[in-house]
Design a protein that fits this description.
Shape: globular
Oligomer: single chain
Number of domains: 3
Number of helices: 21
CATH architecture of the largest domain: Up-down Bundle
Distance between the termini: 11 Å
Largest sheet: none
Strand content: under 5%
CATH topology of the largest domain: Growth Hormone, Chain: A
CATH superfamily of the largest domain: MFS general substrate transporter like domains
Number of strands: 0
Order of helices and strands: HHHHHHHHHHHHHHHHHHHHH
CATH class of the largest domain: Mainly Alpha
Length: 518
């Protein structure tokens, strides 16, 4: 077991871990709102998608590998390694002179980020005694959930009032602080499982993830879904993934062990994480688009209006983790799943007539529904594993949640664009038909990101009656997307019934005293 020596050291280490989680998870989203300024200065509009894809691919590919390595050789060295690589990538990103350079530097950042989140969660479970894991699990889960919402907001503010390069430089003071806290105050024991590295499994897993992520990111954007490039990427993913499964079946120490998934509590926690993550990311992406595109808010304001969801996430994360100390994980996640389905159900009713107050209430419900999953699933996932397996268990569930988010936003992005395109086609006509056939069809850029044309400046240039029809089409497409989002939300609830009935075990006072003496 790892120890930090005393309570003051423990508080410092926890602070360092929280900062590491924040900067790594936030960099998934912080760049999104700065992309307009980045492309405006660096050029490369046709390549901008690589800036976000490179980070996500590298981060996801590294998660299960770093988790396994931390079990084998120690958490501290790989957390520090990930932090240093992440900060190096951040410095390089801020110096990029073109979009290709920035994409390469973002991949370096992502390699470091892949080590930070799962290992930070694992160290927390190593150093925090069971009776305090509820509160700490809630805090860690809240920070992870907040990063998804806080990232775009901070990115918009920094870009508007400072410079887009500070979107990356802002990581430096935070990262250095995390480095000092963990490097000098975290005293790790030497209990680890020395194992053979499964290099073949690592190579096929990384290759499969790279092919899948690029297929999802580039399909429908840079290349058509039925193009040779996208079909080839999906085919390569299938071959590499099947090879990975066969290798893991025979490996003595696999990167992702099948044995873990034979435990009902772990398997169900992973499945719930995949589907609840997909639901959550759709809400965080399309609520700001609704506020900005339909109700006429600015990019910064639409980010600020996600604060109610952030509040709901924080509260539910804390309540869920504390509740898991008193009742079964399954009971907590059942209540959470019901609230999540209710929150997504409310979002399906969005329309042009929905008031800001009503949207706020809907967001709070959705945040309350997903918050517990960020803390409770992390606790349930490692319930049956000791220090020699926790890294792999934690990194695998983090990887699967990220994968669920990525696939979710891709699938539901296609649904929203198709709904929006169909509505606009019927309004404006593509062959002279439609109620406004004399008005040209909106551009492809608008269909991919309605915010491009529905900014306050662009709205002012559109005739009122045409603007009304466009915003109505956008509103309907977003509401329809949330209808489809009910599917993963309901699936996450159904998998709660598959969970076994374990709960967090807190040692009795006598046992704790004996453990302390030992």
């Amino acid at each position: 077991m790892s120890t930090t020596g005393n309570k003051s050291n423990l508080a410092i280490v926890v602070a360092g871990l929280l900062i590491g989680i924040l900067v790594s998870a936030m960099d998934n989203t912080i760049v999104a709102t700065a992309m307009g300024s980045i492309v405006g200065e660096l050029g490369g509009l046709d390549k901008f998608i690589w800036v976000t894809s490179a980070y996500m691919v590298a981060e996801m590919a590294g998660m299960p590998i770093f988790g396994k390595l931390s079990d084998m050789y120690g958490r501290k060295r790989f957390f520090i390694f990930g932090l240093v690589v992440f900060l190096l990538g951040s410095i390089l990103c801020g110096t990029a002179q073109n979009i290709v350079q920035l994409s390469i530097y973002r991949a370096i950042q992502g390699i470091g980020g892949g080590a930070l989140v799962p290992i930070a969660f694992t160290i927390m479970f190593d150093v925090i005694p069971p009776e305090k894991r509820g509160g700490m699990g809630g805090l860690f889960g809240a920070v992870f959930g907040l990063s998804s919402i806080f990232g775009p907001l901070l990115g918009a503010y920094v870009t508007d009032y400072i410079d887009w390069r500070w979107v990356f430089y802002i990581n430096l003071p935070l990262g250095i602080l995390a480095f000092i806290f963990v490097a000098f105050f975290y005293k790790e024991s030497v209990r680890h499982a020395k194992q053979q590295v499964d290099w073949a499994g690592a190579a096929t897993l990384v290759g499969a993830i790279i092919c899948l992520m690029f297929a999802l990111e580039l399909g429908g954007q840079k290349f058509a879904w039925n193009s040779a490039m996208i079909i080839g990427l999906f085919a390569a993913f299938a071959v590499l993934f099947v090879s990975f499964l066969l290798i893991e079946k025979k490996a003595s120490e696999p990167i992702i062990s099948y044995e873990m998934f034979k435990i009902r509590l772990y398997a169900s926690s992973c499945l719930i994480g995949v589907f609840s993550g997909a639901s959550f990311i759709v809400a965080t992406v399309y609520i700001p688009i609704f506020i900005q595109g339909v109700q006429g808010g600015t990019a910064t304001n639409s980010g600020l209006l996600l604060l109610p969801m952030m509040l709901g996430t924080v509260v539910a994360s804390q309540i869920g983790a504390m509740s898991a100390m008193k009742t079964a994980y399954r009971n907590v996640m059942f209540v959470s799943g019901i609230v999540l389905v209710a929150g997504i159900g409310l979002l399906t009713t969005l329309s042009m007539d929905t008031s800001r107050f009503t949207v706020t209430m809907f967001m709070i419900v959705a945040g309350l529904g997903v918050g517990a999953s960020f803390s409770v699933l992390g606790m349930s996932a490692i319930h049956h594993f000791d220090e020699t397996k926790r890294g792999a268990a934690n990194s695998t569930i983090a990887f699967l949640r990220s994968l669920g988010m990525t696939i979710g936003i891709t699938i539901f992005g296609i649904i929203q664009r198709n709904q929006f395109t169909d509505s606009l086609s019927s309004l404006f006509g593509t062959n002279g038909g439609g109620s406004n056939a004399h008005v040209p069809m909106p551009s492809a850029e608008m269909l991919k990101d309605p915010r491009a044309i529905l900014s306050p400046e662009a709205r002012a240039a559109i005739p009122a009656d045409i603007l009304h029809q466009i915003t109505d089409a956008l509103s309907s497409s977003i509401a329809a997307t949330f209808v489809w989002t009910l599917i993963p939300a309901v699936l996450s609830l159904l998998f709660v019934f598959y969970m076994s009935k374990e709960r967090l075990i807190v040692p009795a006072r006598g046992a704790k005293r004996a453990q302390s003496d030992a």
